[in-house]
What does this fold into?
Amino acid sequence: MKKVALTAVAVLGLGLAACQDNAADNNASTVNTIESEAEADTNVATNDAATSADALLNNLSDSAGNVADAAGNVAEDAGNAVDNATTNNR
It folds into this structure.
């Protein structure tokens, strides 16, 4: 009977030890999780902003090139018109 009582006390002792308050550990884990998620969100936002800025600069560069090409075409067309006018009016 003493063995059963000692075993029961040992089991209850282990059960109580397992039920100790881990609030500080849980709080630290929650804080670390929140910080990690905030850092990940910040990194994503930074990368998105950099990608958007790159795309904008590329589009501006392409647009400037297109304007220059169009201006060159207008000048060439004007030159061709003058050549045609002088050639056909002789």
